[in-house]
Fold this sequence. Notes:
This protein is an alpha+beta fold. It contains twelve helices and five strands. It folds into two domains: 5-150, Beta Polymerase, domain 2 (2-Layer Sandwich); 200-317, no CATH class.
Amino acid sequence: xxxxxxxxxxxxxxxxxxxxxxxxxxxxxxxxxxxxxxxxxxxxxxxxxxxxxxxxxxxxxxxxxxxxxxxxxxxxxxxxxxxxxxxxxxxxxxxxxxxxxxxxxxxxxxxxxxxxxxxxxxxxxxxxxxxxxxxxxxxxxxxxxxxxxxxxxxxxxxxxxxxxxxxxxxxxxxxxxxxxxxxxxxxxxxxxxxxxxxxxxxxxxxxxxxxxxxxxxxxxxxxxxxxxxxxxxxxxxxxxxxxxxxxxxxxxxxxxxxxxxxxxxxxxxxxxxxxxxxxxxxxxxxxxxxxxxxxxxxxxxxxxxxxxxxxxxxxxxxxxxxxxxxx
Length: 327
């Protein structure tokens, strides 16, 4: 590619500053994204990309290009975007926010239109260094938008061919992405319109979920014993019951009700030891009630020293069962 000397010189002069800005961005945004569970990517525009952008005819000056350094923060849902914007405002100087759907477009058009934030580094020491005057771009995409962009960018925007069909497919995919983001953002509201089918596993998991919530409200399960994720706990207890309960697969609601009723009575009389998790206590309860079947299954027991200290018989009762190795 033939690139004019003046543009090469501009880029070479700016390159060191661009690298410094890139480093500052990564040091600031990557830990934030890791903490919040967002994905993060970053790039510095190449000389060739800079030249191609200038040749588009959209810029009055080379200094008008504000994405020589660009980052992308990828959030799970649109509902998280405002929190990201608040954070960006606290760590950078925001020159401009081009929010999604702020550009005019026909209702039939489906194209890239995600939030872009033009920022500059904060100059806390009031230095006259050039890096504080160079703008950079931060895009905020949803996971679906990022997947669409990565998948279609090289096929359409930077393709070696011009094909109406490729552009058409890209727009159709974009329409699907917009619909998916809308569905995810409105998950709780939309679910009321979903007709529910009966499924025994879900019914049992819900019983376990509600049991723990009720026992917690009554003070029979201390807050410190509540799992981080109660839905995951319900899944795990269901697996424990399904794989180990006498009689085989749990598909009898009366059986589950009997087990939970018996456990409720025990929780009314004794306190769960602080050294045990709620599921470990549940496992000991099943063994004490002689509900564990003595045949090998695919289930692996998490048998810890804390469990053996409180109930030494576990070593014998679960001797023939598979255990998770923790040493």
